[in-house]
Amino acid sequence: MSRYFIDRPIFAWVIAIILMLAGILAIRSLPIAQFPEIAAPKVTVATSYPGADAQTLENTTTQIIEQQMKGIDNLRYFASTSDGSGNLAITLTFEQGTDPDIAQVQVQNKLQQATPLLPQEVQQAGLRVTKATANFLLIIAAYSENGDHDQVDLGDMIASKLQDPLSRIKGVGDTQVFGAQYSMRIWVDPFKMSNLGVTVTDITSALTAQNAQVSAGQVGSLPAVKGQSLNATVTAQSRLQTPEQFRAIIVRSATSGATVRLSDVARVEMGSENYSFQARYNGKQAAGFGVKLAPGANALDTVKLVKAEVNRIAKQFPPDVKVAFPIDNSTFVRLSVEQVIHTLIEAIVLVFLVMFLFLQNFRATLIPTIAVPVVLLGSLAVLQVAGFTINTLTLFGMVLAIGLLVDDAIVVVENVERLIQEEGLSPKEAAKKSMDEISGALVGIGLVLSAVFLPMAFFSGSTGVIFRQFSITIVSSMALSVLVALILTPALCATILKPAKEGHGEKKGFFGWFNRTFDKGVGKYGNGLRRVEKGWVRTMLVYAVIVVAMAFIFVRLPSGFLPEEDQGVMFAQVSMPSGTPMEETARTMDKVRDHFMIDEKANTAGIFTISGFGFVGQGQNVGIAFIQLKPWEDRSGKENSVAAVAARANQALAGIRAGMVIGFVPPAVQELGNANGFDFMLKDNAGVGHEKLLEARNMLLGMASQDKRLMQVRPNGLEDAPQLKLNVDQAQAGGARPQPAGHQHHGQHRVRWRVHQRLHRPRSREEGVRAGRRTVPHDARRSRQLLRPRHDQQRDGAILVLLDDELELRSVTPRTVQRRSLVRDHGLAGAGRQQRHRDQGDGGDGGQAATRHRL
Questions:
Q1: Could you tell me if 814 and 721 are in contact, meaning their C-beta atoms sit under 8 angstroms apart?
Q2: Which of 87, 420, 813, 829 is deepest in the core (most CB within 10 A)?
Q3: Which residues of 574-597 are buried (b: 16+ CB within 10 A; e: fewer)?
Q4: Mean pLDDT across the stretch 28-40?
C-alpha cells in the first residue's frame, strides 16, 4: 500500500487535506464544555396548583402524573417535589446515552394521558416539560444604582423583556426568573363582603364575565342582504387594563338599581404577580434571571449569545438600571479549554525541538511535524462522528497522543534516513525499501497501544463517560497516526528528503558535542544495566521496597471523583427555622453580604443574594448567595483561593444564631449536584411513620456529625412548617339553619378558635404540638382587632374568616414526602414540601418512608 502512495504523492496529500478539512469543520460544530455529559439525561415536568398545600398537591396532582409515567424507554427512576406554595416538579432520570429529545417526547405523550385527570386549576396553569442541566450556566442580575426603581419594577423588566427572547436562544435549556411581572392585585375585605352579602364566588364570576375579550363579529359579512353597503368588523369590550376599570366591575346588582362594585368590597392596585423572592445585588434592590444549558449545547457559544442579547435589550432600560452577571460558569470553562490548548501547542513545539535535536535535519524533522496537525484534526472529526465534545478530557487525550503519534512518523523517517546514508539509495527507493521493512512494525505499535487504552472505553456509569472520551480520543489518534505513517509519511520522505552528500561525516559544533555526550551517556547506561544484572538479588530487594512504598502511599492518599478546582465562584446557603418570615431571612442575608463585601472585599467582585430560594427548596425561611470572586490573577496565593475564602466565611458566619449559614464551593461537575459530597436516603421500611422517621434521621445526623471523615452534615431540605387547618361545619356554613329576619352580624354569634401551633424553636425534637383554646365574642369591633393581620401575626400567613356561627382553626405539621424506588421521604424536602422518588415499573406506595441528607 505504501508503494502506491510513494508513486502518487499528490493522492496522499489529498487524503491528508480531506482529513484536515473534516477536522476544521468539526471544530465549528463540536460543543465546547469543561467536561462531557457525565450526568444522566433528565426531563422535568413542572406545574403549579395555586393555594394548595403540599399534601393536597401530592394527592391530587403528583400521584396522578406519576401513575402515567410507565413504559417509557430507558427510564431509570423519577423524583417529585411538592412544596407548600403549590409548586410541583417531577424529574425523570434516564439511562446514560439516552437521546434527551426522544425522552422529552415520550414524557409529553404520557403526560397527555394524565392531563384530563388533573384539577382544573392545574390544567389552567399548564404543565411544562423541559430538558436541561441541573445547575445554572449563567445568572443575570438587573439592579438600580440610585434606587429609583424598586424590586417590583426590576422584576417586571426581567420577566417581560428578557425572559422570552433569552428562552429562544439556541443552547438555552430552561430559565428561572427571580422576580415577577406586574399584575392586578385584588385584596378583598371579608367584613365588607359579609355586610354586603358578597362571596368570593360572586367576585370570581364577575371578574370572569366582565374582564374578557369579546369577539363581536362583522357587519355586512356574507351571506349579506341585497343592497348591503357596508362591511366592517365590530369590536366590543376588551380585557381591563387599569385599576380604575377593575374597581368599576359590578359584583352584584338589585332590581331597585342598587349595585355593589368591586371597589366596595376590595382594594385594587398594581403589584407584583408574586412576592416569592427578594433579590439584592451588592445590597441594592435587584431582580434575577437564571439560564440553564440544554443537553449537548455549546456552553461558550450559548453564554456569548445570551450576553449579546441581554446587552442589546438593556439599552432600552432606564439609565439607572444596570445589568450584571454574578455567575458565569463559561469563564472557567473557557479558561480550562484555553489552558489545555496552550499545553497542546507547547507539546507540539517541544516535540519539534526534540525531534530536531535527535534527527539533526530540518527536512527530516518537518515530516513528523506535518503529521501532527493532520492526525489531531482527523481525531476531531472522529469526535464529531462519535457525538463527543471538545472538553478538557478529550483535549488532554490529544496532548498525551502527540508524544505517541509522532513515534510512527519518526520510525519511518529514521529508517529512510539510514538507508539513504548507509546504502546510498535515492529518497524514493529508500522510502519503498523502508516501508517494506517496517510496515508490520507500525501496525503492531498501533495495535499494542490501542490495546492499552481501548478497554477504558467499556467502563460504565459516570466514570465510564469520563474514560470513554479519553480512551476513544487516544485510540483514534493512534489509528490515524498509523494510517498517516503508511500513506503520507513515506510520500513526504520520497519528495522532501535529499540524497546523501559526498564526504558526509561526523557532525560538528553543537550537534557534534550533543552526539558525543549522548553516546557517552548510552555507554554509562549500558554499564549500569550490566551491574544490575549481576546483582539481581539486591535489585529485586530495592524493587520490593519501592512496591511496598507505593502501596502504602496509595492506601493513605485521599480518593475522589474529580479534583476540586477554583472556579471563581462560591455559594452561601441560609436556612432559618421553620415559620421564619422573609423579613428575618433578609436580615440574615444582609449579614452574609456584609461579610463578603467588607471582610472579604479584596477577593469579592460582587454578591447576588436571593431570599426565598435555595438549593434545599423554596420558602420564606431560606436564602442563597451567589458570590463572584475577582479574577484569578488578582487574588494570587493559597490564602485567597476559593476554598480558603469559603473556610473563613464558615468560621465567621457560624456566630449567626438566627439560622444556619454554610458557605461551599461548586463541585467539579455541577451537573451531578450543587456541592461536593453525596446524598443519603434513610428509608422507613417498617412504615413506622413520620415522627419515628424524623427521630431516626436526627440520630443519624448526630452520629454523622461526630465522624471526622465528614463535614457540613445537614438535612438536604427544609423542616416541616406549621399550618392552620380549618374544620368548617358545612351544614351551618351552607346556610342550613335559617336566619331571623333582619339578622345582622353584630354580636349575635360567637367564633370559636382552636389553635394548635408548633413552637418555632422547640427545645427538643420530641417536643410535640402545644395547644390552647379560647372563645371570643363575635362583634364587629372585636373581630376586626382580633382577625386583622398585625406585624406579629404575619409569620402565620393569611388569616381566613368565616362570619357565621363557629369555625375551628387547627395548626398541623404537614408531612414532607419524598419517594425513590417506592420510598416515601418525610421531613427533609422543605416547608410543607413533598418529594417522591420512584423507579420505573413500580406501581404503588409500598408504605415506605425515607429522609434525605446532604453529607
A1: yes
A2: 829
A3: bbbbbbbebebbbebbebbbebbe
A4: 80
